[in-house]
Structures are given as C-alpha cells and as structure tokens.
C-alpha cells in the first residue's frame, strides 16, 4: 500500500511539473512573439482591452444591481475600466469640458472611430447622461447587463419602426428627466480622416426636444492606434474637446443643422491632428 501511495504521488508530481513547464513555455512563447511581431502584439493588446471592458462591466453589474437602472452607474464602471487599462498608458486631455458638466439637457454627439472610444467615453462622461447604443452590444458579455443598468437605449438600425421607438425613448429622457443623450451621428465606426455623412436621428431629436446639440470631438487615434496596420502603441494620448452648443432654432432645416455640426467637428479634428502630429514628431526626434 505504501509503495502504491508513493507511486501515485510521483505520478501526480510528474503531471504538475509537466503542466507548469507547458504553462511557462506558453507564457514565454507569447512574450517573445509579442515582442517580435507587431501583429501579435496588437492582437494581445486588443484582446486585453476587450477583457478589461467585459470584466469591468461584470464587476459593476454585481455591485450596482441593487441600485436598479440609473445613469449614475456609469461612473463606477468607467472608473474600474480606466484603472484596468494601466498597462496601455492611454490618457485623455479634456478641453472646454464645462458645458458637459452643466446640469441641463443636451443632445451630445461625437465622432466614432473604434472600440477605443469606450476609453474616451470613460474619460469624458458627463453627469446625468444616457447613451444610444446599437442593439448588437446586448450580446457582449458583462458589458450588456452593465449598459442596461446604466439606462442605455438600444437601437435596432435594421428596423425603422424599432429605431423610431428608441428615439422616442431618448426624447422621454430629455423632456421628462432633463438628461443629456449621447449619440454617434455617423452611425458606425470610421477610422478615416473624413467624417461619414451624419444620420438625421440626433438632429431630429434635438429639434423635437428643443435642446442644443453639443458637438464633442475625439482626436484621431492614428498617432498611436491603427487597425489596418495592426498597431496599438503604448501611451496613446486622446484630446477630447467640447465645442460650442449648436441651437436647432438657428437653422431652417435638419440638414443645415447637421451640416454645420459636421463642419465644426471636421475643423476641430483637423486642428487637433496638426497638434498631435507635431507632438508625435517631437517624440520621434
């Protein structure tokens, strides 16, 4: 019996040693590949970013579920998320943030570039604000329940009837709860320098609610992040600049209101691009 017991211990010890060696080998292999190959480094970082988002959402949901649905749940989630991204070196420079801190309703719009926008939103998120999100995000684990608890409005872009219902919900948030509503007027991610044509929803909402549109620009990420090039550099800087409110009553048509917001945002993005490009050149030299 004693011999069998010793034999079992040796077998168990052997498998433990083998598992340790395999695990260590995988860690070393991933580390070497990450150091040598930019595409691997990008994939590892992007997966880490997604995991941080899902874990942050899960933790927030478990803590805040007792509070029910309220926009104030955003702040804990975003605080945890930003802390979890310490490894990325991402940082944000908030400019002219005053209007976002005002306790009055706006339709807040911003350019939509990539998943990195979640970090940017976390850095700039205003008080008493809900966001309109595409319905597919309901299937992102961890994030989905957290977004629901934050009173987010999910829009089905493939159903006109359901999309109108979502905008009605947004209108209710503005009129009856005096909240800000955040939307991406491009409607989809766009990493190119030129903004996509704006959808009408945000501007129809502002006109119907009789509240100003508040354009916000997220500086272009291309100085540290590029999906096509598989590049996600450490220490990326994002400038978040809030522009002056645009009042729907000053425009005869929804198209004119949309065009003016797009014009102002394009000018601000181009100006910030020159500034950040100069900063990048200084670092390179």
What is this structure's SSE topology?
Layout: H1 2-36, H2 38-64, H3 73-84, E1 91-95, H4 98-101, E2 107-110, H5 117-124, E3 129-134, H6 143-149, E4 153-155, H7 160-177, E5 180-183, H8 201-209, E6 213-218, E7 225-226, E8 231-232, E9 237-242, H9 254-284
Parallel strand pairs: 1-9, 2-5, 2-6, 3-4, 3-5
Antiparallel strand pairs: 6-9, 7-8
Helix pairs in contact: 1-2, 2-3, 2-6, 3-5, 7-8
Give an overview in words.
The protein has 285 residues and is of the alpha/beta class. It folds into two domains: 1-36; 49-284, Glycerol-3-phosphate (1)-acyltransferase, CATH 3.40.1130. It is built from nine helices and nine strands. The protein has helices at residues 2-36, 38-64, 73-84, 98-101, 117-124, 143-149, 160-177, 201-209, 254-284; strands at 91-95, 107-110, 129-134, 153-155, 180-183, 213-218, 225-226, 231-232, 237-242. The strands form two sheets. It has a seven-stranded mixed β-sheet, sandwiched between helices. A two-stranded antiparallel sheet has the order 7-8. A hairpin with a 4-residue loop joins β7 and β8 (231-232). α7 runs parallel beside α8. The model has no long low-confidence stretch (mean pLDDT 88). Residues 106-221 form the Phospholipid/glycerol acyltransferase domain. The chain crosses the membrane at residues 18-37, 44-63. One of its GO terms (cellular component) is membrane.
